[in-house]
Amino acid sequence: MSHCLVTGGAGFIGSHLTEQLLQNGHRVTVLDDLSTGRAENLSSVAHRPDLKVVHGSITDQMLLADVICGVDVVYHLAAAVGVKLVADDPVRTIETNIYPTEWLLRLAAQSGCRFFLASTSEVYGKNPNECWNEEEDLHFGPTSRPRWAYGCSKAIDEFLALAYHSKYRLPVVIGRFFNVVGPRQVGNYGMVIPRFVEQALAGGPLVVYDDGQQVRCFAHVSEVVDAVIGLTENDAAVGGIFNIGSDQDVTIERLAREIIAKVDPTIRMDFLSYQQAYGQDFEDVRRRVPDVSRLESVLGRKPNRTLGEILDDIIAWKREQIAHKS
Ligand code: UDP
After folding, report:
1. Which residue of 81, 148, 252, 285 sits with most ligand 1 atoms within 8 Å of its CB, as the best mutation to test the pocket?
2. Which domains does the chain carry?
């Protein structure tokens, strides 16, 4: 049994991770400022004596020193996330995503914790390759385009984590998440599947950006959380960077069609330019497919739930939510 600190533990991925850690018999402290996370994400485990939820910010250095006391493993997920939020508030992105990571790494190195750093496929930028492995170059756009602030901030976090590993022997594991989806994800920050599902359940139309030919791979949060814990607890993963996601690719137009077919085939699909959707300075990534062979070789498995199964789960969750509210 370990004592785990999950920063961002009331968020979409963080809350699923917290539940799984508790289920595996660990004690968990969650630190979350509830800016994008929500207290009700933890409602199924809120009563547990082995869970402590601290409402506060990772930008509060004193609080970080306090919550890390007695902790064996840090899962650092708290960050400014979502393409829309990041484009809207680049200062907050940089302040939230860089300084607190360094403070946490320093505290973890002092107390000998194991450290999982949540990173992102955004670090690859607009790399033109078909499929991205962890040793690829990073292809960011110009600093005048706010989108790249997120990927750059996370790339700096990775450099910091690797530096603490080589200089202080801090056992770090870095996971780059690729379009993680599932129940509890909200569409406010740009995430496509919750937005499409909400649009479909409201009778449409589904609003596809650009020509809909951009490609993504969607992984179910339960399989992502399983990979995060599996890697963090595995000595062979220490010091490594891992793509974590599905390698089944789909265009956004096909994704919209699948959701329409599942909810109501009469629903319309509309197309909207990036400029209208995100503003003038926006640049999208056309194709994002991970090479997950490194993950598979260390863990012996990779996320493999089909898009159809994933969509069924999310649609059922969203329907339940709507029924609960009315
Ligand atoms: N997208 C869309 N309609 C929406 C939201 C997103 O067509 O309402 C597109 C978006 O332009 C991108 C893809 O769906 O190409 C995935 O967007 P998301 O924000 O979920 O994640 P990203 O992969 O861009 O980080």
Report:
1. 252
2. 3-181+219-247+291-299 (3.40.50.720), 192-213+249-287+305-325 (3.90.25.10)
